[in-house]
Structures are given as structure tokens and as C-alpha cells.
């Protein structure tokens, strides 16, 4: 996507944006926000800044435009830039974006994650080391299926203990950190907290970021996957895969 963007979109922004009607400039901003949504690692910061600057010069910047820019910066994990922009421009965004030591975060080369502190004011970079047996669950506190999966797991003492030892609950990269929802999840499920993926490219074994998707790994290699959570049948699937890993005894 990066190469197509550089070839097809970026050149026209520098040459044509000032000649566009205001509604068209705002539409272009929406297009860039959509590109960033599908691939947060495409480097479009300079182009988005140029478009917002043009809207500012016209006195036409709306709160929704600023929100799109902030969400792009958050998804790109440029949280300090997002915090500065939020400080300089009044927006309706709440709660405040947490702080992040970006120099430490950028040093993570693989399986990088961000851990939300208890009061939701800062994110701590952490490399999630591979284990001999692990279950990485792509999940979200806003996903009802993720919540149902957790409820089913916690209702079963055997599964709860196994997933507490081997499970990693990983939130996809988004422009909204959903601070309150993640805090509530972690307070409610302290043995199975949720962390944020830092960069999706650092998790190459994850082929789908749909929630919930379970990746069952042995020695860092995926041996099975399961997507969704609809009924008690999913409990049976989870048990079977955990038994295959050797994490759960066969009854």
C-alpha cells in the first residue's frame, strides 16, 4: 500500500490541494484517514499535516478533522505528537491521550506491546516474549464476542487457569485507545489483562486482526487458529486446541 500511495496519491497533494474546493480538501483528508485505518504504518503524516494546514488557512477546520488527525497519530503510535496537537487545539476528545516513552517503544523490533497503567495516564512499552506454549488472542473490550469468550473461559476453572498461564490478550492497532474500556477489562480480569499491539508488522504470525481470533503457538510457531465466539461449541474447540498443545489434560 505504501508504494501505491506514493505513486498515486501523495504527489497530487503537494501540487493540487490549494486549488481544491474546501469540501474536496476535507474529502481528501477522509481518504487519507481511511488509508491509515487499513494500514496504520503507511507514512502519511506530512500529507495530513499539509491538508490540515490548508484547512486552517481557510478557517475551515472542523473538530471532526482534528479528531481524524489525532486518531491517525495514535494509530501510527506517535502519541507525543498527538498529545501536543491536542494541547494546541481544543477538541471534544476525552479522555486525554496517555503518555508514552517513544524512544523506548521504537526500540522494540518484534512482538512489541503497550501496557496501560492502572490509572490510564501512561503506556509502558513491553516486548511480549515467546513461550513454549502460548495462546495469543486478538481481542477488544468493545467486541461482544471477545467479552463472551472471556466470560466462558472464566466460568470454567480449568480453562481459566490454563488461559491465565498461557493466554495473551492483544488489542489491534486503532486510532482510538478506548482507555476506559481497557482499564475496566484489566480491572475485571487481572489475570488476563489486555495489552495494545505496538505495530501490527511486529506480529507477523497474525494473519487476521478480527476479534476474537485465537492463535495457538508452540515454540513460537502457529499450530492452530480459531476465529469468533458464538456458542458453547467454541469452548469445545478451545479445549481441543489446548489439549493438542499439551496445555490441558485430556479428560
Which class do the helix and strand fractions yield?
A: alpha/beta
Shape: elongated
Spatial arrangement of strands, main beta sheet: 1-3-2-6-5-4-7-8
Order of helices and strands: HHHHHHEHEEEHHEHEEEH
Number of strands: 8
Strand content: 15-25%
Low confidence ranges: none
- Rg to the nearest angstrom? 20 Å
Mean pLDDT: 89
**Helical content (DSSP H or I, runs of 4+):** 40-55%
State the end-to-end CA separation.
Answer: 48 Å
The biggest beta sheet reads:
8 strands, mixed
- What is the number of helices? 11
Strand and helix layout:
Elements: H1 2-8, H2 10-16, H3 22-38, H4 45-57, H5 63-75, H6 79-88, E1 99-100, H7 102-106, E2 112-116, E3 122-127, E4 133-138, H8 144-154, H9 157-166, E5 167-171, H10 179-188, E6 194-197, E7 213-218, E8 221-227, H11 233-245
Parallel strand pairs: 1-3, 4-5, 5-6
Antiparallel strand pairs: 2-3, 2-6, 4-7, 7-8
Helix pairs in contact: 3-4, 3-5, 4-5, 5-6
Describe this structure in words.
With 251 residues, the chain is of the alpha/beta class. The chain is 46% helix and 16% strand. The chain contains eleven helices and eight strands. Strands 1-3-2-6-5-4-7-8 form an eight-stranded mixed sheet. It is elongated, with a radius of gyration of 20 Å. The model has no long low-confidence stretch (mean pLDDT 89).
A few lines on this structure:
This protein is of the alpha/beta class. 46% of the residues lie in helices and 16% in strands.
What would the keywords be for this entry?
single chain, 251 residues, alpha/beta, eight-stranded mixed β-sheet, 11 helices, 8 strands, 16% strand, elongated
Amino acid at each position: 500500500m505504501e508504494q501505491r500511495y506514493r505513486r498515486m496519491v501523495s504527489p497530487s497533494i503537494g501540487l493540487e490541494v490549494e486549488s481544491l474546493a474546501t469540501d474536496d480538501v476535507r474529502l481528501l483528508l477522509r481518504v487519507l484517514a481511511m488509508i491509515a485505518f487499513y494500514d496504520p504504518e503507511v507514512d502519511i503524516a506530512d500529507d495530513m499535516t499539509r491538508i490540515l494546514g490548508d484547512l486552517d488557512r481557510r478557517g475551515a477546520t472542523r473538530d471532526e478533522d482534528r479528531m481524524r488527525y489525532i486518531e491517525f497519530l495514535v494509530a501510527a503510535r506517535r502519541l507525543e505528537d498527538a498529545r501536543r496537537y491536542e494541547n494546541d487545539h481544543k477538541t471534544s476528545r476525552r479522555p486525554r491521550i496517555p503518555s508514552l516513552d517513544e524512544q523506548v517503544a521504537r526500540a522494540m523490533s518484534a512482538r512489541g506491546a503497550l501496557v496501560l497503567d492502572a490509572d490510564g495516564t501512561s503506556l509502558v512499552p513491553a516486548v511480549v516474549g515467546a513461550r513454549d506454549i502460548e495462546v495469543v488472542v486478538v481481542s477488544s473490550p468493545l467486541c461482544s464476542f471477545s467479552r463472551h469468550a472471556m466470560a466462558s473461559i472464566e466460568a470454567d476453572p480449568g480453562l481459566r487457569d490454563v488461559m491465565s498461564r498461557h493466554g495473551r490478550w492483544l488489542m489491534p492497532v486503532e486510532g482510538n485507545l478506548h482507555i476506559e474500556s481497557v482499564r475496566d477489562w484489566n480491572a475485571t480480569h487481572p489475570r488476563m489483562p489486555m495489552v495494545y499491539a505496538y505495530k501490527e508488522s511486529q506480529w507477523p504470525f497474525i494473519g487476521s486482526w478480527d476479534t476474537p481470533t485465537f492463535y495457538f503457538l508452540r515454540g513460537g510457531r502457529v499450530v492452530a487458529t480459531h476465529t469468533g465466539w458464538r456458542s458453547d461449541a467454541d469452548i469445545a474447540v478451545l479445549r481441543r486446541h489446548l489439549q493438542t498443545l499439551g496445555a490441558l489434560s485430556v479428560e
